[in-house]
Design brief:
With 397 residues, the chain is of the alpha/beta class. Helices cover 36% and strands 26% of the residues. The strands form 2 sheets. Strands 1, 2, 3, 4, 5, 14, 15, 16 and 17 form a 9-stranded mixed beta sheet that branches. The chain has an 8-stranded parallel beta sheet with strand order 6-7-8-9-10-11-12-13.
Length: 397
């Protein structure tokens, strides 16, 4: 692995943008500042550019579009994951948690697809540029999955574990033709078969709380961080918190977000919400929550470019300076996931860095991405130089 030296850029170090020199050795950042010996290293001239910690994405499900770009049109999972990896890296995401929904539905979010995705991620990790991890989104009414999930947790195969409950929304959408048709198409069932399936699942509602409790206990035993999705009240958040679920993912109102933040929970909102100026569901506006100190993490959600764009949007709108906005997409999600080796530029930390051209307002351009000490994306080769050591030194080594 070639050492990399990044010079003349403004790097985000200890909360400030300062001009400094960075050198990587192997997978880590070896040094900040100083002149040093550049022989044998790949050089990157970052003049007039920003050098920022790699983005950490706790919840991204845009890969589903690569798997099924149209209803009923499937592509192989390995092809979809490889393409998703390229998209994530090109948007500065160096650590990606693929948010995989395992529902009671057949089709895209079925047991078979969850198993295939997990196996594909495990097999493909060595060849993917981003550090790719498995975030299992468990639909709480999917009671038949409980035993297998507990085994996966015990075996260390799940990196993040979320509790989802979309049943009320599913039932409500049955009366909305457009949403109903979308759900039915996703499953591959007929409309009548889908109605019967929903009725069977809802009939087991009384068994859900005990299942959630057993799964939470298994996750705690496995030391897997847990999230609760779409919490709609402080009482719901407290109930999950009491089970060790420390991350509130997309709380649907300010009251719930405020309860979560006051208790020290991590609070996740979607970066597309910031970029678009509001939620596509009409729920909480993420930029308002950030301004009030009620959001600690932004995730890509369904759109990989959103985290990068959101940080610069927050800075441009005066909500947060870029140095603090960047924490929402790098250091804070790393902390929430228990990854203490990344998220900041410091000696001994993992060499995940992105080099950004921010000349055009609100349209940051990724010039280069370094992941675990490897240059994995480059948009401007004129920035490169390579300095070799004298032949005798190479021979002596």
């Amino acid at each position: 692995m070639t050492d990399i030296i990044i010079e003349r850029g403004k790097a985000l170090v200890e909360g400030e943008l300062v001009e400094t020199r960075l050198r990587t050795t192997g997978r880590d950042i070896a040094a900040l500042g100083g002149d040093g010996d550049g022989r044998g290293a790949l050089g990157i001239d970052a003049r007039d550019l920003l050098v920022l910690p790699g983005i950490v994405d706790l919840h991204g499900d845009a890969f589903e579009r690569q798997m099924m770009p149209r209803a009923g049109v499937d592509f192989p999972i390995d092809v979809a994951l490889a393409d998703s990896d390229r998209q994530a890296i090109a948007n500065g995401i160096t650590t990606v948690f693929h948010a995989t929904t395992w529902s009671w539905e057949p089709g895209l979010r079925s047991a078979e697809n969850a198993r295939r995705l997990l196996e594909a991620i495990e097999q493909m990790r060595p060849q993917l540029a981003a550090d790719t991890r498995f975030h299992l989104r468990h639909e709480t009414y999917n009671l038949d999955a409980e035993a297998e999930i507990i085994v996966w947790l015990a075996e260390g195969r799940i990196d993040l574990f979320a509790f989802n409950d979309h049943m009320d929304g599913t039932i409500g959408d049955l009366a909305k033709p457009r949403k109903r048709n979308r759900m039915v198409e996703r499953t591959g069932l007929s409309a009548e078969e889908f109605d019967h399936l929903v009725a069977r699942v809802v009939a087991r509602a009384d068994d859900v709380p005990a299942s959630v409790s057993r799964l939470a206990s298994a996750a705690r035993s496995a030391n897997v961080r847990m999230l609760s999705h779409d919490d709609n009240s402080p009482e719901m958040r407290k109930a999950f918190r009491n089970q060790g679920v420390g991350i509130a993912e997309f709380p649907v109102n300010e009251e719930t977000a405020r309860d979560a933040a006051a208790a020290g929970d991590d609070v996740v909102y979607g970066a597309p919400n910031v970029v678009r100026g509001g939620s596509h569901t009409g729920w909480t506006k993420a930029s308002d929550m950030i301004a009030k100190g009620l959001c600690s993490v932004l995730a890509s959600d369904y759109y990989y470019p959103a985290q990068l764009l959101a940080a610069f949007r927050l800075a441009a709108d005066g909500v947060l300076p870029l140095e603090k906005a960047w924490d929402l997409i790098s250091a804070a999600p790393a902390r929430a996931a228990g990854l203490d080796d990344r998220g900041v530029l410091a000696e001994g930390r993992r060499a995940d860095m992105i080099i950004v051209d921010d000349k055009v307002p609100l349209r940051p351009r990724i010039v280069a991405v370094i992941a675990a000490g490897r240059l994995v994306h480059l948009a401007d080769a004129s920035r490169l130089s390579y300095s070799t050591a004298p032949r005798k030194a190479v021979a002596a080594a």
